[in-house]
Amino acid sequence: MTFIAVMQVALFLHLPQEAAPKGPEDNKTLLARLVKGDQKAIAPLVKQGEAMVPTLAEMLPVTPAPDNVYVVIALAEIAESVGPRAKLAAPALCEALRSEDRAVSATAARALGAIGANALPGVLEGAKKPGEKLYTIRAIRHMGSGAKAAAPTVMQTLKATDDTKLRTACIEALGALGPSGKETAAELLAYTRANKQSSLTTYLIVAIGNLGADSRPAVPYLTDMLDKSSEVHLRMQALEAISKIGAESQETNDKIAKLLSLPDMPKLVLLDALARGPLGKEALKMVEETMRDKDAAVRLRGAVAYGRFDADHPAVVSILIESLKEPDPKMRKAAAETIGSIRPSDDAVVDALRARRDDPDATVRQAVADALRRFKKKQ
Questions:
Q1: Measured between alpha carbons, how far is 75 from 77 in angstroms, rounded to an integer?
Q2: What is the pLDDT of residues 200-245, one digit of tens each?
Q3: How far is the C-alpha of 27 from the C-alpha of 14, rounded, in Å?
Q4: Cβ(139)–Cβ(168) under 8 Å?
Q5: Full set of structural domains in the chain with CATH
Q6: Distance CA 300, CA 290 (A)
Q7: Which of 60, 167, 332, 338 is placed for a possible disulfide with 92 were both Cys, Cβ 3.0 to 4.6 Å?
Q8: Does the pLDDT of residue 143 top 80, yes or no?
Q9: CB 290 within 8 A of CB 319
């Protein structure tokens, strides 16, 4: 730390007593230890929560790297606990996004994400400035659906950059924002079509799916990928995206049926993808057929997918109860988790869960306990 920086922090730590935060009398000592890189000072400061936000926010701009990383970490941990109530720290954290210290930038992005929409105006203002924008975009991604207003800025940044990391961050941010308008979805589809050989294709497909119904114009592109892509993971991502968009067509159903019939196609992965979005009647029929498969794991995945739409289907109930007795603890755990999630009305399901309360596997016992608690809440 430079002499000037030391003096700035020293002056700050010797503010009159009325300016000090409420809390233990040794806060000044803790803060001094914090800026000297003592990680053990973080926990007692964070424990004071919202009360420490003003002090840490004032300290951040006058504490140079690398010492300021601990100030940012403390703010981030408090923000993750109190959320929008830490908004007073947003201006200082927005400046920290542009730090040359990547640890500071990344942690500031996480903290701003926890603060949420209250911090968005400052983040967007920073996005207009020239220079490093990676962590500004990541802050928007951390905010998720509360930052939908940032979609045009993120899209503009994506189209203007050739930097792979920044492009990836922009695409992930757009996906995290969720449905944010048909214009955004159209621009993202156009960008995807223009980057056919891009290593970013997987990220783009995921983002398109996360935009939901706004991405309906992308269904022909995704359906074509189901049929023509030589990469299995891209086919699966396309299928999952179609499921999230909720667009059913005869062409799409035909291609899904074809995929399910291919002997070298992983049915478990296919069913996982189908389970992530709304299913039309034809797709449901295909999933129903998998519940008759000779492979117990496929039957279970089929029941998981179908159970989201009809928890009381006789085959769903039967398979879930059977799966609680499987030798593989992963299957027993998945069955218990699904039962807790969809909560069939058949009392036999609850009896089957109770019979597994002493399961030899700890993860299964936990899943069973969680599922039983959900049934109690239902009652």
A1: 6
A2: 999 999 999 999 989 999 988 988 887 777 787 888 888 888 878 8
A3: 11
A4: no
A5: 1-147 (1.25.10.10), 178-290 (no CATH), 296-379 (1.25.10)
A6: 9
A7: 60
A8: yes
A9: no
